[in-house]
Design a protein that fits this description.
By secondary structure, the chain is an alpha+beta fold. The chain has one domain: ATP-grasp fold, B domain (D-amino Acid Aminotransferase, Chain A, domain 1, 2-Layer Sandwich). The chain is built from nine helices and 15 strands. Helix 1 packs parallel to helix 8.
C-alpha cells in the first residue's frame, strides 16, 4: 500500500511489454515522508484523481507522452474524464516494471535495480521543476538566493519568483529523499537520458502552468515520475494535483503544503523529532528512519480536517472548470488555515 493511493495490477508488465493497471486513490495523506497519517481527508482521493486525469488529458493534447489511459467508471468502463458520470477515484494506466531497490551495507544498489528493469522500468528519480520558491520549499535550506539568480542576501518571508525555471533531480525509492547532482542523477537514471527527462519536465511544467493560470492559480513548483520504455521517457504516476504541485490563489498556498505548515505551527516537537530521526538514520547508515522517531503525529483538529477537504474539493473544481464537488468557495477554505 502506498501512502495515498494503491496500485492494482490487471496485467503485469514484462521485460518486453507494458502491462495494465489501476491507481485507486484514497483519502489518506502524508506529510514529511511519514506515510499514512492518523486520519483521512474526506473526498481527497476523488479530488486528486480528477485533477490528475484532467492534467494527463491536457498533456496528451500538447503531445506529451504519458502512461495514462483514462478513468474507471463505477460500472467498470474506461473513459475520458469528460465522460465520467461523477468524480472518479480510479485511473487506468500502463504499467512498467518496478524492481526492488536493494539496500545493503549502508547504500542502495542501483545496478541491481537496472539489471532487473532492463529496457522497461520506472526511472528511480523524482524530477522537480520550480518556477518560484514558496514558503516550505527545500531550496531555501539548500541554496542562498543568489545561487538561483535572486538579488537578495536572505530569503524573503513570502514566495519569490525565480528568474527562470529550475529543474532538479532527487531520489525516489530511498527512505529519505535526497537531491542529486546532475551527474549522479544521470547514473541513477540508467538508460534514461537526463537531458530528455529535463526537457520533458519543462513541457509538463508549461502545460500545468497554463492550466493553473486559466483557473486563477499561480503554479510555484511540482514534481513528476517517468517511465523508460524502449528508448522513450513518458510521464508516469500522477501530475498536476495538490499533492504533486504547489499553487497559490490570491497569494495563499493551495496544496498539501497548507497541512504541512499547520503541523509545523501546531506540532513543532513532532516535526523536529522527524528531522532528528532522519539525521540519525543518515549518521548510522540505516534506511528506516521512522524506527528512530519516538513521537507520532496527532490527528488534525476537526475544523482543519474539514478545511483540508474543502481545499482539495474547491481547488479541483476551479482547476478543471467543472463543479464535481459540493464545496464552499476556495477562499473560505483557505481562511480556516489562517
Amino acid at each position: 500500500m502506498a501512502s495515498v493511493k494503491d496500485r492494482r495490477v490487471e496485467s503485469p508488465a514484462t521485460d518486453t511489454d507494458l502491462g495494465r493497471g489501476v491507481f485507486e486513490f484514497s483519502d489518506r495523506y502524508s506529510v514529511f515522508d511519514w506515510g499514512e497519517m492518523p486520519d483521512h481527508v474526506p473526498g481527497k482521493g476523488a479530488s486528486l484523481c480528477t485533477m490528475g486525469a484532467y492534467t494527463f488529458e491536457q498533456l496528451a493534447a500538447a503531445g506529451v507522452p504519458t502512461h495514462y489511459q483514462g478513468v474507471r467508471t463505477p460500472d467498470g468502463e474506461t473513459v475520458r474524464l469528460a465522460d465520467a458520470p461523477e468524480a472518479p477515484t480510479q485511473m487506468v494506466i500502463d504499467l512498467t516494471q518496478v524492481p526492488t531497490l536493494p539496500f545493503e551495507d549502508g547504500s542502495y544498489d542501483y545496478d541491481r535495480y537496472h539489471d532487473a528493469g532492463g529496457s522497461n522500468y520506472l526511472v528511480p528519480l523524482e524530477v522537480v521543476f520550480r518556477n518560484a520558491v514558496p514558503v516550505g520549499s527545500s531550496l531555501r535550506t539548500r541554496c542562498a538566493p543568489a545561487d538561483v539568480g535572486i538579488d537578495a542576501d536572505e530569503w524573503p518571508q513570502g514566495p519569490v519568483e525565480l528568474p527562470e525555471t529550475i529543474v532538479e533531480f532527487s531520489t525516489k525509492y530511498e527512505e529519505q529523499d535526497r537531491y542529486l547532482s546532475r551527474s549522479m542523477a544521470d547514473e541513477i537514471a540508467g538508460d534514461a537520458d537526463i537531458a530528455e527527462l529535463d526537457a520533458l519536465a519543462r513541457r509538463v511544467n508549461e502545460t500545468i502552468t497554463d492550466c493553473a493560470a486559466d483557473a486563477g492559480f499561480v503554479h510555484d513548483d511540482g514534481k513528476l515520475e517517468c517511465v523508460y520504455v524502449d528508448g522513450e521517457v513518458r510521464v508516469a504516476d500522477v501530475a498536476g494535483t495538490f499533492d504533486e504541485n504547489r499553487f497559490r490563489f490570491d497569494g495563499r498556498e493551495v496544496s498539501k503544503e497548507a497541512v504541512r505548515q499547520f503541523y509545523k505551527r501546531s506540532a513543532p516537537e513532532w516535526v523536529g523529532a522527524v528531522k532528528d530521526a532522519k539525521r540519525a538514520a543518515d549518521e548510522r547508515g540505516v534506511a528506516d528512519w521512522k524506527s528512530l522517531c519516538e513521537p507520532s503525529p496527532d490527528p488534525l483538529p476537526p475544523e482543519i480536517l474539514q478545511a483540508a477537504a474543502d481545499l482539495y474539493a474547491a481547488g479541483a473544481n476551479r482547476y478543471t472548470a467543472r463543479e464535481w464537488f459540493d464545496a464552499p468557495p476556495l477562499g473560505d477554505a483557505l481562511d480556516a488555515f489562517e
